[in-house]
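Hello forum,

I keep getting stuck at the same step: I have a sequence, I want structure tokens, and every attempt I make locally crashes halfway through. Rather than fight my setup again tonight, could one of you with a working pipeline run this one for me? It's a single chain of 321 residues.
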Amino acid sequence: MSDINQRSRPTAEPLVWGVACALGAGLAWGIVFVAPLVLADYPPAMLAFGRYLAFGLIALPLAWRDRVRLLALRPADWRAAFELALSGNITYYLCLAAAIQLADAPLPTMIIGTLPVVIAIVANLHEGGMPWLRLVPSLGVIAAGILLVNQAELRALDGVRNLSDYLLGALAALGALVAWTWYPVRNSRWLRLHPELNSATWATAQGVATLPLAAVGMAGCLAWYSLKGGLAMPLGPRPWAFAGWMLAIGLSASWLGTLLWNRASQLLPTALVGQLIVFETLAALAYAFVWRGVFPGAEVLGGVALLVAGVVLGVRAFARP
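Reply #2:
Ran it on my machine without issues. Output:
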């Protein structure tokens, strides 16, 4: 039996700590759904490259402090870090920010909200280790919760955007879904095959790998909008708000969220970690309702209850001997 399958049933203490780390990552990641709404006058590319430029700059002093471990990383580790940075960081958030601005938050949230189900299915197909009958109840309850929440959200669409915007937004959200389905499966497998990797070091390595990609992308954005016009340079119409939000999500959502997610990926099977991405959806919904200044209705609360119940069922399935 492979090392991955041997770890498919974590003991009680790693299970608790792994779920707690996944919860912390979800709370940190949820704010990235709000930023495109708060900074609606900024193009998605600037939001994506700005966020990860901040992440990379934040990672530099952390990298210096952790330089001994980073220098010990092999070329294969750095290649994996660049792959993960390109897919799970820049590509994912570029697509997500575009989707939210094109179609508003409900439609992208509905599509991205299927991540717990999609990742769990892909991970179990790829790695095995858990009978499908044990996964079906939690996946079914999570799927029902997602449908219920987003059925209510779709009825609240603003009616301002046209059909082409919604279709483009849906395509962009599907791109984000593909990018973030690949990222946790690849990241979790790499960490589990290399248990000597420290989760904080691996988060910092991904930040360092992201920096050149984000710097080139931001330079291209600034050059493009300088030639095209229509956007105040160098940091847009609200430079302080833009810089503040980029630093906030660069530190909390990117570095801290990655650190916590790496630790959860080391402690838990990938199929379970995939289901725990539902914490991001729950946090994003909570932050969105705070931003709107309204209280969610009964349908949304019922969907949230189903999402939580699905997570509990998933944890119990993996905890059973």
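Residues 3-319 form one domain. If your local run keeps crashing, start a new thread with the error log.
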